[in-house]
Amino acid sequence: MPPEPRTAIATVCLSGTLEDKLAAAAAAGFDGVELFENDLVVSPSSPAEIRRRCADLGLSIDLYQPFRDFEAVPPDVHAANLRRARHKFDVMAELGTDTVLVCSSVSPDAIDDDELAAEQLRAMADLAQQRGMRVAYEALAWGRHVSGYEHAWRIVRRAAHPALGVCLDSFHILSKGHDPAPIRAIPGDKIFFLQLADAPKLPMDVLPWSRHHRLFPGQGEFDLTAFTGHVLAAGYRGPLSLEVFNDVFRQADPRLAARDAMRSLLALKESLGVLDLPAAPALTGHAFAEVVTDPGAGRVLASLGFARTGLHRTKPVELWEQGEARVVVNEGGAAHGAVGAVALASTDPARSARRAEALCAPVLPRARGPREADLASVAAPDGTQVFLCGDDWRDDFVPTGETAGGAGIVGIDHVALTQPFDHFEEAALFYRSVFGLTPSPVTEFAAPFGLLRSRAVAAGEVRLTLEAAVVRRGEWAPAVREPQHVAFACTDALAAAAAMRAAGAPLLDIPGNYYDDLEARLDLPPSRLAALRERSVLYDRDAEGEFLHFYTALAGARVFFEVVQRIGGYRGFGVANAPVRMAAHRARRHAVPPVKTPA
Amino acid sequence: MPPEPRTAIATVCLSGTLEDKLAAAAAAGFDGVELFENDLVVSPSSPAEIRRRCADLGLSIDLYQPFRDFEAVPPDVHAANLRRARHKFDVMAELGTDTVLVCSSVSPDAIDDDELAAEQLRAMADLAQQRGMRVAYEALAWGRHVSGYEHAWRIVRRAAHPALGVCLDSFHILSKGHDPAPIRAIPGDKIFFLQLADAPKLPMDVLPWSRHHRLFPGQGEFDLTAFTGHVLAAGYRGPLSLEVFNDVFRQADPRLAARDAMRSLLALKESLGVLDLPAAPALTGHAFAEVVTDPGAGRVLASLGFARTGLHRTKPVELWEQGEARVVVNEGGAAHGAVGAVALASTDPARSARRAEALCAPVLPRARGPREADLASVAAPDGTQVFLCGDDWRDDFVPTGETAGGAGIVGIDHVALTQPFDHFEEAALFYRSVFGLTPSPVTEFAAPFGLLRSRAVAAGEVRLTLEAAVVRRGEWAPAVREPQHVAFACTDALAAAAAMRAAGAPLLDIPGNYYDDLEARLDLPPSRLAALRERSVLYDRDAEGEFLHFYTALAGARVFFEVVQRIGGYRGFGVANAPVRMAAHRARRHAVPPVKTPA
Question: B286-298 pLDDT, tens per residue?
């Protein structure tokens, strides 16, 4: 196995003061940081104090950045730039860092002249060399004359100075569709620095895309494994360093963001074959889902045909079952969401837990009674517990002997984990890297109280949906976060809906307008449409199959249930119908609030 | 004066259920609505019930929208489309609306054949005509084959059907840079509908730009007055109808958004010369600023050289003065912000108030004692009171006889009104339309706890700055909203800072790193730099002049003061230095909070 590279993170990735950022980077286990100039400028700590702080935290300062608009300028501007460089080298000496990032110029002063650029960079490299420092030159994707890494490398080669090399930034290269393979031809010791960022593919100019929408590796659509592979193959031995400008991360808790950043690099290293992690064991399905709620959830489950089959040996927790669907109703304790836990059946629970721990997923402490199973449990980014179960988890429950006739539910189809605003991107990376689930593309849709984003993470019979607001919700929305739910699979949704309604299940009524629209859009057989309408069952279809589903009213403050039937190869989750459900929940729940003073 | 057009708003502009939206539109005084199909589909009310609701609210339903992917398709798709149209005409009949919007097709089924498009639209118009309805055909900017309004008009002309006309949408036309002048050549009675939206000019594809970033007229960069002028000149006599897709408005309180939407149309009508409003009187300066806070603010003002010159006759309110700077410290009552009120000196306060009222700015009720001045006061979108003053407002205060030596402050330079997340766009429109202030372009900058947007609205000596978070702040940020402040003008900031510090003023200490950076960037005379550094005075310059400024610590929960000196023609507000100030405030104020459970 090749040597494992060091890790670094640019302070600009994180929110807070410089002191907050350094503490967060160290706590997440980074080896070093790129120090963003503005973070230093606003800090009350002197460079020498920052140096000591970093040393105490075990962090190196791997890069000082960015130095802008340096090269290929008229003589008077060049003189001012060298003056500026001298001052910055003084600061770097105090900081104890030896590499400065120079971004290709965007200045209107800049001249399209590679020889001039090389000559002026050589002058800067001379100054650097006198201080034992070096200059890493990077092509910005929107540089005025130099916007590709091969061009930057040509200028560096022409300058031929030992203290001048290139900095490669995955975003600047991949966003423009440049081929990263020729990186292999750059001598590894001339690649002075490597900055990594992923991104979704967005139809906008590269500058706002870069400034607002970068993501950590594995969260976006770039192939960072291939890219970084080329850089390592060239012989680069510096740190893998994250430089991610993202509007959401900039204002999120840096301690959580740094942990997710580290997870992204660990997963990247694993994919590069430079880090050996316990492989993700196969997950065979949903062992159970836990809802943390008031006793109302049990009554709703009973009306859906569930039986209360077990009582926890030591806790106020009930097990409800129907077919292979198992729901644990937890009436005690605090929880982050209405769904307190998802329990996944693993072929090797202990290995699943070891992998999770190796990928920065906190393993949760758990009080365990003498006869109770040793369930491994890790915390998802939003605080949801993820249990990893073998076959013995049921031993925690004393059988009640209760059985129920059932109403056609055969198992858990999926668990819908609506996410807090700050955690949408990292949730998908978490479930993918830690448990080997495959994320689907992000769907955006308009709901009554604002736009939502939704995606699934799935493998085989394990399916989770993740949903979050596009704009963090304020006081007008009925809830900061939409409720979560557990969706049960059945083989005949129309029959199940009729049976459950007859048994008094609090099923949502779906407006006639919905069925009028369905009739206009799709040429469904009239009897089919009438049955859907009569039973308030929603409908979706795609090229692979059909989807019938219906919902209960809220069964607690922030949780409800769904029953779904998949026909053919339909793989979706009926997202197009979600706004109908939201409006129906709203109609049952909320009076319109008074106008509030804005915060 | 030409006839005043009716007003309408698309329900998709507003947040909530259809019921919420209709109530908000009616309360804001709209004459009608465009009914967005999805709002109807999710509503528990039948079309007939919606019709009655609208009638009760005094709203007409002016348009049913949108019908997508209709024209220029193969015969089997055309048959399905006509079937869909019949169903929608049924719904429209129940709603009592006679016009449907057909957007130019984006379907891969669509064929680039104007004759086929005309023929199929004619068939739809035939169906409509039989029901006494009509079809308004609109070119989407991203339509597959039809993406310009002149092309849509050619197809409509070719179809030559009395029940087929065009719908014009300002966004689709102006976003593509199409010349709107030829609209004048379209017969007015063939323009069946007019949709208005403004937008900032953004470097992205037109589809996401349209779906996420539209604004109400006057909030963006399009010339809606010229555009609408062409449409009225053509003879269009339908409503001016807003169709604004905006991520923020979609989740904001619809009652506030609808009011701002109406203000945008009133201002537009005034600019078109179809509505006569009382003209905005000249504003001659800041009469005073009111801070609502604890007694600490008075002590800070005293340390800045202010004297407490008056006590309010009936309220726990003090007047503090220095030069022409007047601050009212209000220790009682609730307020929306730390700055409770800005008081602007008007050449005709009564007319200012009449204009504000005509532009949907709520005139605030005010308890007035027998000897007190009758100040007009209106509420800004964020709840800040705006007083409009003549010369007699001082009569409310009993003079104390106190005087102070002063420390060089000569007046109020500006008041910084940080805005709640939802109110940034509308605040600029409010101050522009109601008071005739001119907005400056929006600046975006990175601050320790996330990106911020900032702009000024100013006229002569009246200057307000508006600032809001780009992403609504969550639990990590020290405050949902940055504090507000009053900035005082002086003629020698270095002398003032020294005098005030000697008098015990709690001035912010600015880090040495800031001055090291200033030295590197700008070739300031060493003595000048040393003086700035010694006195913690910040510096900015532009092509027109220089700006020296310094800040106090927080003088209350959410308010502080600034002292500024303008040299030459500098017109900015030192925004580049704001992050330095924020980090300094943070250093004085906050311990790092524990990691919180996300909401």
Answer: 999 999 887 678 9
